[in-house]
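note to self — DONT lose this again. spent like an hour looking for the file last time. sequence + predicted structure for the chain T wanted, 111 res
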Amino acid sequence: MQSFAFLGSAVLVNLYITRYLNHVSKLLESIVKGKSEADEFFVNLITVDDEFKGEEQRHFFEHIQSSMFTVGIKFSWSFDNSGSRYARHIVTETGWKISLDRGWTFINRTR
């Protein structure tokens, strides 16, 4: 299995993540399977505070945070309600940007 150690950390940007919470779980599950026990991995999710399911959203993030901590993944989240972000993407510490916008996937080395 491919190791995720080369990524180091990742920032996930998805403003409407409430619709795709299962995708976050699957991505984190893949990272857990692909990293060694000694590797620490940091994931920061940037999204908007869901105006209708905000409590459910925060509960889900807290659950992910506590369960991922036990397997060496430090999960955090923040809300960006500024309206200045649109595209969904993943940026890694090592300079990779994976754009998931509008159904197309582009993987670019940014450094």
